[in-house]
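MODEL INPUT / OUTPUT PAIR
PAIR INDEX: 1
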Amino acid sequence: MNTELFRQGVPDTIITQHFGRESVTQSYVYDHRSLGERLKDVDIPDKAANLFQPGTPQETVAKMVLSDLFGGSSIAMTFKKIQRESGDEAAFLYLSQNSDGFHSTPYGFCITSFAVNPCVKHLKCFDNCRHFLPSGMKEHRISLESLRADLKVMRDTAAAKPIKSIGRKNQIAHAEQLIIGIDLALAAQPSKPLFESGTDHSTPIEDLFR
């Protein structure tokens, strides 16, 4: 019922009051609309509409940025910064030129430009990557569950080594970190940012030896 009320365009404040919740945030926990449904009523301003062709990844990303659905991503934060400092025209021009990033990975969606910023995580989307967007799709769940099973075998194999084995502790910690990320991805709400405060891997890595 919560999802259907959102689909019918009922304001989130009314939905929250109807169910007797303490905050609007609680209502969005039970919002299970698809990404397409969430973006259906998001409009790109007329003065910028000609920059985004309907049905393209650029339009999808632009709507995600405007709806604040992926507000923690680098492209969204840069868009807002340009908008504050240089106005709407410059901000939407930036968005049109940098919003080609909407890719389907084996584990969910990625909102970054692979052409400009190749994936430095080698598609480890679930490893605290700010650009990761869970999809809830069956195919992605199967990939995550399969990888989780492999990582558990790797962790247990490392744990079975003698305690003083070289690298044993790091191998176990690394596997457990990835398993935690996968568990979060499997439990996440579809089309909602999972690691909004996570690492922006598209930014240059500081040279530790400099």
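PAIR INDEX: 2
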Amino acid sequence: MPTRQKFSNDLEELRLNILDLGNMVDQQISLAVGSLINQDMELANTIVVKDLEINDLQAIIEEKCILLIATQQPLAGDLRKVVAGFKVSIYLERMGDLSVDLAKLTIRIGEEPLIKPLVDIPRMSALVHEMLDLGLKAYVQDDCQSAAQMTLIDDEIDLIYSQVFGDLRAIMMEDPNKVTQANYLLFASRFLERLGDYCTNIGEEIVYICTGKRVDLNE
């Protein structure tokens, strides 16, 4: 097989691996939020175990990126695709870690009655899902414009987080007995806010692939 053709095939395989990783992480986020809403400890424990598969796939992607650079010595746009793919896989792995952190909050809260209806956390989760879906599609299509638009969704997440912070702070001031769970729910919303930031990091890598320029979409 010609060297160029092999590189193209390897690059496509790398893309597919990253898409698989992204889909696994997306599912983990949905399940983690579901475990919190339903106070499902069994599901939460499953998420913790499933994270090992995400770590393994990210390690495979990392190895492929290193091999592509070492053996194919790509230049310009091709090199950007490999480097960006590696960084996207790191961000996705960290998002998987945050899903585990969310699941652990479910375990910590246990069966204790929730101090407030969980309406904002599902809203934030839905926006994270929208961002990640947009980011993965933009990655496949090298769609720089869509990647930049992810910041608009992230702004919505940040706004909801600010509202949740205010609501939970008011609850803690009103009833000290609710401080512990309020802090857990505050952590949950903070984790979702961080997930949005990681999605914008992925968007930055797509912009880098398209333009060769580094931008800060979190500004």
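PAIR 2 NOTE: The first helix runs from residue 3 to 38.
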